[in-house]
Each structure stands twice: as structure tokens, then as C-alpha cells.
Amino acid sequence: MQVARIIGLNIFLAALFLFLSLLFFSDYTLTKEIFQSKVKQEHQQRLLPVFEKIFDKTYPNTFVFANEIKNTVEDLNVEARNQQQWDQVIYDDYAGTLTKASTQGIIVEYTLLLFILIFGGGTLGALLFILPKISIEAPGIKNNNIFHHALNNRGWIGILLGTLLISFYILLYFYDAYVTNWIILVEPLKKLINPNGDSSQWFLYGFLYTFAVIVMGIRMLIKYRHSNYQMVRTASVMFFQLAIAFLLPEILVRLNQPYFDFKNMWPLDYDFFDAWHINMLTESGGSVGLFMFVWGITLFVVGVPVFVYFFGKRWYCSWVCGCGGLAETAGDPFRQLSDKSLKAWKVERWMVHAVLIFAIVMTGAVLYNFITGTNSIFGIDTYTHLRKPYGFFVGAIFSGVVGTGFYPLMGNRVWCRFGCPLAAYLGFVQRFKSRFRITTNGGQCISCGNCSTYCEMGIDVRWYAQRGQNIVRSSCVGCGVCSSVCPRGVLNLEVKEEEGRFGKPILIGNNGIKLQD
């Protein structure tokens, strides 16, 4: 079995190396025909004279070629701004479009073969490494020196992986032209789903996201095979990510309907009330688009309080959400890295609720502009000072670069704990109006600390267990791992009547221990 795991690891690393090296495998040649087919007609007269020096010139890699495109357009824009010719400024990003159309080499000639080698080989290698655990490892989490592992405790492997993830997100969000070869790599899958569609950075991201959830979800199913709750929960996030978040929106586009993720909602979906999004749903989508718009509003206005009341925030954060799905599967090896200190809890409460308030203010301003047809409110440019900063700092940097890139450094729920405005909204309802709680039996607790160690949300579960107190923290996502790793069955996820949910706090003082009335 160990031989199979070693072979699998090497196959996976080979596929990963091939995937990374693809960025340097192509040449790029821009022709006048490509220029005329990809650049808007209104921009061609202005751009043609400066682009002629690039035509038919071969560039050795995407970085040099994309920078040439960017710099050429930016030089014209600087000149227009200096002369205050604002109508001459070109806002379209042609670097990605022209880079993809100008790509030459094996990535274009053998796209399908490379796709099979990389993702087929990666899947085979991962499964060869994961599946033998069924016979050589007992289910569940044990105290197996995890904090001495270079991957799982901020060692060199973890730092290297974190660096790769952070670099990937920066390229994806801000320099998509540099990952053109990866975008071309997933073109066969895009054409299979929608023959008339073209792959983009976001299709690439959606596929890689889903790929990680499915493969690492299999690992979760094997690891927690002793717990029916964990098995069903993992299968749920795999289904919602694959079927609802990835495939269904692409199928809708193929059917000439708006792109829509039915499981996503405001305020996590922060552009839901943007003018372009409302217009897309209500105008181009017809009755289907209108249903999507009403569904989105109903989900967070009615769905959240109703489902949280009966099931806690776990119904979304641990069973449906894509961010939670990636955290629970691909991020599972790093759950023990979450900070359990009181200081972290204080920072968490301030930050996550501050982001929620920011989202509410930004959305209110955007809606006001949409209704009134203006661009500002109280003299403040809504897009420049609210919508754009939120999209950059929260939507890109916090949720992407930090939220996922910091898995090997700060644990798998950094975004969910400190930044997700929807988690804050769900948690607020769960804290004050829900039947869900985690009950504890302090008499059986042996203080092993497994529950606190592996709580991804940074809750010191043992502190509650030792006192026999119910856990009703707003940050708890109900993943149930604390219960699954408890050797004595001290912790139980329960849904009961609200009465008695908070229990009676235990006071420890000079006169001994007693229950507070």
C-alpha cells in the first residue's frame, strides 16, 4: 500500500509540475488579422499605428507579450489623460484577449492531450495516494504528531504551498493574461459544456475550485468514514459545488439564460444589486431572469432566518457554501492552525461585523444610484469610493488571496471567521434565534483537547466541554468535527426547543462551583 501511495504522489507531483510549466511553453505572435478581429472597431483607428510595431513579431513567453500589449495601450492613455481627452481613454483590457488569440505552440496543438495528462494524471495520482488510507489508517483524527509535519504546521512545505496559492490568486485576479495557457488548457471542457462559449479566467477558476473540492472531498469521505454526519455533509458540498455552482450556470448560458449561481446570495454575492446584474436578470433573462432575481432576494430575506432557526448556520456554511466546501475539503489538513486565543476572537468579532456593515452601506448606495439614476450619494462617488474598494479589498484580496492562500498559514476558515459578511449575518441569527446548539457532557470530558485543536473556527471547545456548557457561539459553522474527534462522545450536535439553549452558566469562585440562577 505504501508503494501505491508513493507512486500516486509522484504522478500527482508530475502533473502539478507540468501544469505550472505550461506558463512558459508557448510563443506569441500578433497579426493584423487577429488585431482587427479582437479589438473594438471604435478603438482600431487609434490603436493601429502603435500596434503595427508589434505585428508579426514573435515573443518567447506570455509575460513579455502581455506587458507589451499593456504598455502600448497605457502609453496612449497617459497621453490622453495629460491632454484631458477623456473620451480617448481606452478602458478595455486587451492584454488577455490578444494574448489568447496570439498563442502558438503545444498548448494550442495538443490542448486535449495536455488536459488529460494534467487533470487525469493528477486525479489518478491523488486517488492512489488517498485510497490506501482505507486499509492502513483508522478513520477520524488521532493525535498523530500532526504539529511536527512540514505541511500541516507551517513548515517549509506549507509555506511553499501557501506561496503558490497566493501567487495563483494574484495572477488570476489581477494579471489574467499571464495565465492564458491555463485558460486555453480548459477550453475542451468549456466547449463540451457550451460549444459556443470560450474559456476565461473565471471558468478556469471554477473548474480548479470544483476539481479540488471533488478530489479532496473523496479524501474527507475516507477520513471520516466512521461518521454518517460527516459523510453526508461532505457529499452535500461536493454536489452543490459541482452541480449547482459549476455546471448549472454554464448550462443556463448555453440555453441563452443569465449566468446564475442559485446557492449564492447577498451579501456574499456582493454584486447582486449592481445595476448591470439587475438589468441582466430582469431584461435579458425574461421571466427566468426575474425568477432568479426574486429567488436571490427571498433566499437571504426569508431563507436565512428560517433555515438558521431550524438548523443553525451549518445548513449553509457547512453543507452548501462553496467557500465552506473548499475549506472543509481542500482545507481540512490545515484546520488545526486556526488561532484559538481570546485576542483572535475579539479581532474576529470586530472584523467580520465591520465587513458586514461595509457591505450594507455599499449595497444601499449602489441601490440608491440604480433607483435614482445618479452616480453619487451625499457628494460621494459610489463606484470609486465604495463599490470598487469593496470589490478589491473584500471580494478579491480578503476572500481570495488571503481567504484561500493562507490555508497553510492561518487555517482553513480565515475568510469565514474574519471576513465573510454572510457568515456574520447567519451567525447573528444563530446566536439569538435558533434551535441549534452543541451540547456537552462535562462529566465525561478527559481534557484531551482534540475538539479545540481541530476546531476550524478558532473556538476553544474544551473550555465549554469542561464546564458542561452548550456551545452557541455565532461563529460556529456546525461542521461537527469536534464531535467526530471526541473519544468519549462528550459533544453532540442537537436541534431542540429554544428554552434552555443557553443553559445555566457555571460560576467558579471562592465559595466553590455553582450554577447561576
Largest sheet: 3 strands, antiparallel
Q: What is the average of the pLDDT values?
A: 91
Q: What CATH architecture label of the domain at 434-515 applies? A: 2-Layer Sandwich
The best one-word shape is globular
Instruction: Give start-end ranges of low-pLDDT stretches.
Output: none
Strand order of the biggest β-sheet:
2-1-3
> What value does the Rg take, in angstroms?
26 Å
User: Treating each run of at least 4 consecutive H or I residues as one helix, how many helices?
Assistant: 25
Label the structural class.
mainly alpha
Commentary on this structure:
By secondary structure, the protein is mostly helical. 61% of the residues lie in helices and 6% in strands. The strands form four sheets. Strands 2-1-3 form a three-stranded antiparallel beta sheet. Strand 4 (376-377) and strand 5 (380-381) form a beta hairpin. The N and C termini lie far apart (58 Å). GO terms for molecular function: 4 iron, 4 sulfur cluster binding; metal ion binding. It comes from Chryseotalea sanaruensis. Pfam families: Fer4_5 (PF12801), Fer4_9 (PF13187).
Structural topology:
Elements: H1 2-21, E1 26-29, H2 32-38, H3 41-51, E2 58-59, H4 62-82, H5 94-101, E3 103-105, H6 106-109, H7 111-130, H8 133-136, H9 156-174, H10 180-185, H11 187-193, H12 201-223, H13 228-254, H14 275-284, H15 286-311, H16 314-317, H17 322-329, H18 342-372, E4 376-377, E5 380-381, H19 382-405, H20 407-410, H21 414-418, H22 421-432, E6 436-440, H23 450-453, H24 461-467, H25 481-485, E7 491-495, E8 506-509, E9 512-515
Helix pairs in contact: 1-7, 4-5, 7-12, 9-19, 12-13, 12-17, 13-17, 14-15, 18-19, 18-22
